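WP5 quarterly update. Target: F-box domain-containing protein. Source organism: Absidia glauca. Length: 301 aa.
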Amino acid sequence: MSQQLLKLPDALLLKVIYHLNLQELQQLGQTSRQFHELVYNNPRVWHQHVLFPPKDSRITDQFIRQLVPQITRHYGIHTLRLIQLPLTWQGYMYIFDQFAHSVDHIQLETTFTVLQDLVHHLTIFAANLAVIQQDNHIPITFRQYCIDASHYHQVLVDHSYLGESNVAQITRRFLSHSNKGTGGSRLSNLDDPPFERLRQWQVRCTDHPTDSKSGEGGDCIVQLESLVSFLSGSQLINNTPAAAAATITPIIASPSHTSASSPSSTPHIMAGQKRTQDKLDPSNRQRQRLVSPPRASSLYV
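Structure tokens (predicted):
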């Protein structure tokens, strides 16, 4: 059957494949070498309406590790909606590894435990990037960190936790850097931030109240915001959905205070504008746009 389908023109096959869901795409890619290449090497197959269905219990860490690294890298994915998926911090880091270079909007809803784990590991990841940049070495990727997280924790131990006493203190240092830039030595912006195009970040804790930033859920969200700000190279500010398009100044050039807390009925939202020098002197990766985002599918809309 698959051999008969392969006799059809690629353009026609792609029109059919475009309307398959995530699991169907994976199953089709396993039927033959030709379909594997057609599915995973064609950017138009992978659009934001197929990645990832909300609350899908089948999207586990193992599923992500098997699927995501096979997808060809391109600049067509601008939005990631990661809504109540059964993933640990590792699953999210694998997703970030594949799509961080192109996304400008990430929406994340998960449990307090997973948010805590993300804060911990993104702190170690971000601190390692700071150390690597200072030593003029090649930056690590999210995937490299996942493979050997204990090694990168040891790097911080060897560097005396960047002058702090533990990972939690480094997290607070990123928070100070993002909000006011006071306390401790200054952190330098990353020359090549992994979230190079990120402008909007929404995060909601599904099992802890976030009506006050003094609560556990609110604290976790604020800490994540400061880390994502550092990893995007932009100062990102909490705001309501209506004000999500506000222009934000860079962290180093003009530190700014975070705005007032968002209402409890809505997720905390950050919106940021990339640094001016990124627009004037785009990196090679930014110039390698392979395809324009395809038209929206009726699937999962």
